[in-house]
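Q: Now give one record:
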Amino acid sequence: MTKSYKNGGYCVAGFDTETKEWIRLVASEDPARSELPKSLFDGFDYLEILEVEVLRPVPYGCQRENFLMDLTVPPVRRGRLALSELLSGEYLSREKYLFGNPFSFLNEEEIARVGGSLVLIKAENLRLGYYRDEENRMHYRSSFTYRGRTYSEISVTDPVYRRDELAETELEAALLVVSLPGLPYSNGNFYKFIDKLLPLRAEDSARADRTLGGRTERRPFVLPPKREIDLPKARRFLSLLAEKKHPETGEELDMPEAYADMFGYCARRLYGPTESAVDPRAVYILRSRVGEINTTQQRLTASALAERINAVREPYGKKVTSLMIAELFESFGLLSRESGKRLPDELGTTYDISYEIRHSPNGVTYPIVLYGQRAQAFLLDNIEAIATLLDEETAKRYAAALAAATSAEPPSEQAGEKSAESEPAAPSLGPDVVRIPPVTRASNYRGELAGKPWTPDEEGRLVREFMSRLSLEKIAERHKRSVGGIRARLMKLGLLEGE
């Protein structure tokens, strides 16, 4: 059924034709050396019925299907299984989730609950891709829909689809043999991977759907229809929300600063170009430069996405931060909070958003959200939620106002090009500018533990406190350290972006 790459050899698995149970052939009881010699199986293909000699079952962890093969007896071809028989209910999985969860991996607690490490599924909307890492190693990844749920960042070990001409493929439907490893990755997780991929024709796909009791449809995410609005009332409501006030009662609202900035941006858009003014809290990008922000198959953190956007922003206003990006996805319902952490929900996974668990130097684990190519495209499609897009004339006018406010000569470069000089920090740009009171800097309190080494236990408490949105001053007080020390440690953990 499957013959995939493993440590220079093959991992071979299939169904027992009598019991219809999975069998994985291994060359050794040691899972690190279980691959079979290529010479034994190079002449065989999927769906062929083979007779092999096995010595005994050698289950290991979740790989309960392992059988030790007698390598002195070569396999013998005995026939071929019809695809129609493979599409019957005896072979296809009917489980709601792929190995019990909708993610790309299982943790140690989840792996103990699975009943096996091999499964045959019917998948839809399959996309294959690859990328090179910093060491020039190739990584082959896939995303697909199974039982109405989207799975992304699943590794592909099928030799056929690791060739250049097939490494980037889109298929409407396919049969997949998905497997779990016997040993965990370095971070302790067990990652799912595709051993075998078999494209399905429309009629075969329909046959599989009938076997499974009908196709599971995902309800699409549809925006409500547009309707006429009262613009003056909308401006008034948005302006009050930008001031963190309830539009009807006027009471103070507890909302993130990024939300207030977005409400202010929307209010300014409704006032029209004649009343526009440079706002030091806004991010400005030339409309013609948005196309320079390319998406990539590599999964990026919010900080990496912010860097790509900031590379084309205008020098006035402020930079995009990772927090702004995370809150944008949260506002669209693609991220949700779990124990104070923003993680992709079911809808977010359909937009190619995932997360992985990382480890600090002191052994503390924390989640990092990763945005795939579809999520990156979604961000660019909705870039105006966090940035103001300018035309050429407006950019020139703002640049001239910036130069006049800083007593400098107007830039000679074409609008949109970056100056070699350092960027001024929120200058006064004339009477029509929205003026923002200066931000009060955090206290420079130095506690008795300032400068002392961090312990794993203290670092763990820091991560939990930061995820629960405590202020840096409050965290510093609890840890008896300086605010600067707290900020530096959070930056080292990747939880806070540097200025």
